[in-house]
């Protein structure tokens, strides 16, 4: 009997012999591998990966999109409430700063509260996004683990399992993000240098050197960051499927990616482009619809409106835009994670004895009675 604690190893083959797609030849010719869920239990082609991701979204849409909407919607409401509270606390300082004439400096008593409020909002936003991202990166593999087997799963179960793994998943995401830190910092330094150069009209001094060093440094370290990121991209799935800790999950991902870097890179790039295009197409109608209430609201403003009046006048546009971004974020977050999870399953099918273990866990009858029992070469599911 296969176990539900993890997915085990060994060379793929087992009950499906040596046929090209994993199925035994038999009397009737090639026999396709079993497909109890969204993918065949054999090495996956590009169509299998993309089709499995779309099938998972279709069959388990309530669990995936319902949880994502609750998480991202809750984070948006939390930030809206925080912005409203912050504005009520510093509105007087903000209005005094906005009403200053050109060339007139603001007092520190007005600037310091605004800076503190902005920093607190930024910290709250970072914390909220970290928790939401961690829960989503834990929830999607949780759903996928059952989708591969064709088993149902409730939203409450997804939440419970995701919550138990959220801390190591967040740790894994932080470690993964560190690989892209150096080129991002260099690009930001170059961007700041460009701004300084434009403001001071100094293109031959230190700003020019900073721009050159930043761009060249990003170009040199960018490919290494991409290579490392692909090496560890399967780490969140390893945390959820195998219960790995963050550092062990990074090593596990590097082990699984070894020998198949370019294929994984290509599929991940394609999935990201597809999600980006879908998110843009979804967001555009909301932005267009939001223009009408925004135009009507701004037309009624006075010559010297207060920040509160501007926010009220633009509320229709802001709500429509945020709604479009919310839906776009749900799609652009869920689909690539499903593809990544399926690549994790594919690599374990190709390099370990996962296919027979999956078949046993799904309750699929063994097709070859002369083969060793399911799970004999792979102790865990």
State the main characteristics.
globular; mainly alpha; disordered C terminus; disordered N terminus; 381 residues
What is the compact description of this entry?
This protein has 381 residues and is mainly α. It has helices spanning 46-59, 61-98, 108-149, 155-178, 181-200, 206-231, 235-242, 246-257, 261-299, 307-313, 315-351, 354-362. It has one domain (37-179, 232-362).
Would you mind describing this structure in some detail?
This protein is mainly alpha-helical and 381 residues long. The chain has one domain (37-179, 232-362). The protein has twelve helices and no strands. The longest helix has 42 residues, at 108-149. The chain is globular, with a radius of gyration of 26 Å.
Topology diagram in text:
Layout: H1 46-59, H2 61-98, H3 108-149, H4 155-178, H5 181-200, H6 206-231, H7 235-242, H8 246-257, H9 261-299, H10 307-313, H11 315-351, H12 354-362
Taken in chain order, the helices and strands follow as: HHHHHHHHHHHH
Give the tally of β-strands.
0
Give the CA-based shape: globular
Q: Termini distance?
A: 10 Å
Beta-strand content estimate:
under 5%
Fraction of helical residues: over 70%
């Amino acid at each position: 009997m296969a176990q539900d604690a993890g997915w085990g190893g060994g060379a793929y083959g087992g009950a499906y012999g040596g046929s090209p797609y994993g199925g035994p030849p038999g009397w009737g010719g090639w026999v396709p591998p079993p497909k109890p869920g969204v993918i065949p239990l054999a090495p996956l082609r590009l169509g299998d990966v993309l089709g499995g991701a779309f099938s998972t979204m279709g069959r388990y849409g309530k669990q995936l999109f319902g949880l994502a909407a609750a998480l991202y919607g809750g984070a948006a409401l939390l930030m809206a409430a925080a912005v409203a509270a912050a504005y009520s606390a510093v509105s007087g300082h903000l209005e005094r700063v906005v009403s200053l004439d050109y060339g007139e400096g603001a007092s520190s008593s007005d600037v310091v509260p605004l800076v503190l409020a902005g920093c607190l909002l930024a910290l709250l936003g970072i914390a909220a996004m970290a928790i939401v991202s961690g829960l989503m990166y834990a929830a999607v593999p949780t759903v996928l683990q059952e989708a591969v087997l064709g088993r149902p799963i409730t939203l409450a179960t997804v939440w419970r399992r995701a919550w138990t793994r959220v801390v190591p998943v967040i740790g894994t995401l932080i470690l993964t993000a560190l690989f892209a830190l150096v080129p991002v910092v260099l690009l930001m330094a170059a961007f700041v240098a460009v701004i300084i150069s434009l403001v001071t009209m100094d293109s031959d001094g230190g700003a020019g050197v900073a721009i050159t060093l930043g761009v060249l440094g990003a170009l040199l370290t960018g490919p290494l960051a991409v290579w490392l990121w692909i090496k560890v991209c399967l780490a969140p799935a390893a945390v959820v499927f195998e219960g790995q800790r963050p550092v062990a999950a990074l090593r596990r991902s590097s082990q699984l990616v070894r020998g198949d870097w370019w294929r994984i890179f290509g599929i991940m790039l394609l999935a990201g482009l597809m999600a980006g295009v879908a998110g843009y197409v979804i967001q555009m109608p909301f932005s267009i619809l939001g223009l009408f209430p925004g135009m009507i609201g701004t037309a009624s403003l006075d010559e010297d409106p207060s920040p509160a009046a501007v926010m009220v006048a633009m509320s229709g546009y802001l709500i429509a835009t945020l709604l479009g971004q919310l839906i776009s974020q749900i799609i652009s977050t869920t689909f690539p994670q499903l593809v990544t999870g399926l690549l994790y399953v594919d690599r374990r099918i190709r390099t370990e004895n996962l296919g027979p273990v999956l078949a046993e866990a799904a309750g699929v009858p063994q097709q070859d009675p002369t083969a060793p029992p399911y799970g004999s070469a792979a102790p865990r599911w």
